[in-house]
Amino acid sequence: MSRFTLDAATEFLFGNCVESLSAGLPYPHNAAYLPPIKRTAKGDAANAFAHAFLEAQEVISIRERYGWVWPLAEIFKDKSYEPMRIVNSYIEPIVKEALEKKRNSPIREKGEEPSDEETLLDSLVRVTDDPIVLKDET
What we know:
With 138 residues, this protein is an all-alpha fold.
């Protein structure tokens, strides 16, 4: 379910699916029989993104439990740095592409209805050109 949700959300938000369903099925470490897993570059990238996204969510939830003193728990190392590096490596090219698409497309008239293919990112790009804000909002 989490892979399907991730694929659906990235398709809706970015118009670009991470295709995590294309990755091989995970098996428990103590499985008696492990069928051969067909590995692909796309599947490995999808697994890396899904794993990093989950890890970043876990770090953030732990910070919430610590409350306002959470920076003291990470005084020597930012625990969200590595997972967010992986997530950002996927998101940043998509944001750049959306900004480039905005620069090259004709200006929409005020009050003109959005098209059916418009994603959340397309809507946000109409409001701001700041890639950091776009990345944070998506």
